[in-house]
Automatic annotation (TrEMBL):
It comes from the Eukaryota. PROSITE patterns: SUI1. Residues 474-547 form the SUI1 domain. GO terms for molecular function: RNA binding; translation initiation factor activity. It comes from Vanderwaltozyma polyspora (strain ATCC 22028 / DSM 70294 / BCRC 21397 / CBS 2163 / NBRC 10782 / NRRL Y-8283 / UCD 57-17). This is SUI1 domain-containing protein. InterPro entries: EIF2D, eIF2D_SUI1, Pre-PUA, PUA-like_sf, PUA_eIF2d-like, SUI1, SUI1_dom_sf, SWIB_eIF2D. CDD domains: eIF2D_C (cd11608), PUA_eIF2d-like (cd21156). One of its GO terms (biological process) is formation of translation preinitiation complex. Transmembrane segments: none annotated. The lineage of its organism: Eukaryota, Fungi, Dikarya, Ascomycota, Saccharomycotina.
Length: 566
């Protein structure tokens, strides 16, 4: 229902009598007599979606609670309502990959993707929630049951739509109401911190910051702080070995700038040390490990089968790696440290911007015959790959098929598969003997869709998945309107997580001028903030303070230069 952002009108308060009637309908349809609205004031607005129209009910703050279609009395709770009351709907469980790759892309839930046994209430026409087996109490999508689910003891080989999905986390409704809440982890039952005499059976919502190994969090006195600091400075050799080993795993699996062959000194300083977890580099370095020297460290992991070396003594070169190692396949990347004691700059090798700025990463999604090609490589099949992964995949294929020119290793002789993929639009007899660099470039350009993903300066992604196209650019235009009034317009900023109302308020204060919020006249239509006066420099400086790098900002001055009188 909300695959695309619906058009919504301004909110209006419900009358008290209508509010009570709505609450009774919600209780009757869900069978939850204990349910109540989170605020005393309930608002409503009409929506116009791609395939339907209807009404959305929100709380006092404008967060969507319930919605229904026009000419229907059936009320659907939003996922945000279900997070506050996880027992509101019967739940269908599915796999994480089904949620992330299908449900969150607007698909319905098929019976083959569900996990039995099923709740006895899951009969056709019943409103239900969808959750993952790893987070079974957190509803991430809401829909209507299409099949008699309890009659299925096994779903292997079964076909058909199990749930017609109407709303999911991050859909068009969430975008329209600017909902930025992340999916919580909900633990059913009673909070252990609550006194046993209290009869509060409501679930506990745990955010990422609140997750701990134990439910109780011990208090740390000021005297304990110095003891903790002393413990950190007294890291054991095993601890340091663990940190360095983790950095090696990260480097071999996630470092986009790693390219072989590479001298051992560069490998250690530019990759191993830069990819450490957030620890003090004075405490964690090669000299403090059990290996003591980088050469011993590298030779140990060559013996273990992780890397390939050339050279003798201390003069070593890393010429390759083995990504088939089980440790690398199971490795889960972590957030690497932001700075070292020797440098005030960011040491994340994936970064393209300074410490305070957002940055973007480019990915490539296979299309057509590229999907089959990727299954022939050693890489696991994914929806998107990095440039270095594609380079390694093509290089490995060329070596495996013995396509390298023996007289000139920089050249390659294309086999039929690579020939068809490199020349999707064939000219008159295109050559089969071309440089390996040209093979990689043509292979990537003709068979993959470019994607991008924006990240905040704390490495948090702005979007759950990469987005098709190139990174957006904020547009700033200074011009003279009718009546000889100079204005500065700012648009295309919402992709960076900037709220129009907040930006207008900031510019009104910084520029000491009135602001208005409207829509661009050019296609595609985006929100635009206009402020009186020529304030491009102030606006650019303000965007920089919001972590937007200047290279992502386009400024156009449409004011005519003053004529010089003779």
């Amino acid at each position: 229902m909300f695959k695309k952002t619906p058009h919504i009108k301004s909110l209006s308060n419900l009358k008290n009598s209508e509010r009570k009637k709505l609450l009774q309908s919600c209780k009757a349809q869900t069978g939850s007599t204990d349910y109540n609205f989170p605020t005393s004031v309930i608002k409503q607005t009409n929506f116009n979606a791609q395939t339907s129209v209807g009404v959305i009910y929100t709380d006092e703050e404008g967060s969507p609670l319930w919605f229904k279609e026009k000419h229907s009395e059936l009320l659907f709770p939003t996922v945000y309502t279900c997070w506050e009351d996880p027992t509101l709907l019967p739940i269908v469980l599915t796999h994480d990959i089904v949620i992330n790759e299908h449900i969150f892309n607007g698909a319905n839930l098929m019976i083959s993707g569900t996990l039995p046994p099923f709740d006895s209430r899951l009969v056709p026409a019943t409103i239900c929630g969808i959750a993952t087996r790893n987070n079974p109490n957190t509803i991430v999508a809401v829909g209507v049951v299409q099949l008699d689910m309890p009659s299925y003891s096994s779903v292997i080989g079964k076909t058909g739509v199990a749930v017609n999905v109407l709303h999911y986390w991050g859909d068009g409704m969430s975008v329209a109401f600017k909902m930025k809440r992340d999916i919580p982890t909900i633990v059913g039952g009673k909070d252990k911190s609550v006194d046993a005499t209290e009869n509060d059976q409501s679930p506990v919502i745990i955010t990422e910051e609140e997750k701990t190994e134990d439910d109780s969090i011990p208090e740390i006195s000021s005297n304990d702080v110095s003891e903790l600091a002393q413990e950190e400075s007294a890291l054991t050799v095993e601890d340091i070995d663990h940190f360095i080993t983790r950095s090696l795993y990260y480097t071999l699996t996630n470092d986009l700038k790693l390219a072989f062959p590479i001298p051992s000194s560069s490998f250690i300083s530019n990759h191993i040390m830069r990819n450490l977890p957030p620890v003090d580099h004075n405490l964690v370095n090669i000299k403090k490990t059990s290996w003591k020297k980088s050469s011993k460290f590298l030779k140990h992991f060559e013996k273990e089968g992780f890397i390939k070396l050339k050279g003798k003594g201390e003069d070593l070169t890393i010429v390759g790696s083995n990504k088939e190692k089980e440790e690398l396949k199971k490795f889960e990347p972590y957030r690497i440290s932001n700075s070292s004691s020797n440098s005030g700059k960011k040491i994340n090798s994936n970064r393209q911007e300074s410490e305070n700025m957002m940055y973007s990463l480019v990915f490539y999604s296979p299309k057509g015959s590229a999907k089959q090609f990727m299954t022939l490589t050693e890489l696991p099949y994914k929806n998107w790959y990095t440039a270095i992964e594609l380079k390694n995949a093509v290089t490995e294929y060329i070596k495996k098929k013995e396509l390298v020119d023996k007289k000139n290793p920089k050249m390659a002789n294309l086999d039929d598969r690579l020939y068809d993929m490199c020349y999707t639009k064939k000219s008159t007899n295109p050559p089969r003997h071309i440089t390996r660099a040209a093979v990689i470039e043509s292979f990537t350009t003709n068979n993959f869709t470019e994607l991008y993903q924006l990240f905040k300066n704390d490495d948090t992604p702005l979007t759950k998945n990469p987005v098709r196209g190139s990174p957006p650019r904020i547009k700033i235009v200074t011009e003279m309107k009718i009546g000889r009034k100079i204005v500065t317009r700012v648009s295309n900023f919402e992709s960076f997580g900037i709220d129009a109302d907040a930006l207008a308020g900031d510019l009104r204060r910084l520029c000491s001028g009135s602001t208005t919020i409207g829509e661009t006249t050019t296609s595609p239509k985006t929100t635009e903030v206009q402020v009186q006066g020529p304030h491009s420099k102030i606006i650019i400086d303000h965007l920089n303070s919001l972590s937007i790098p200047t290279k992502w900002i386009d400024f156009e001055n449409k004011l005519k230069p003053k004529k010089i009188r003779n």
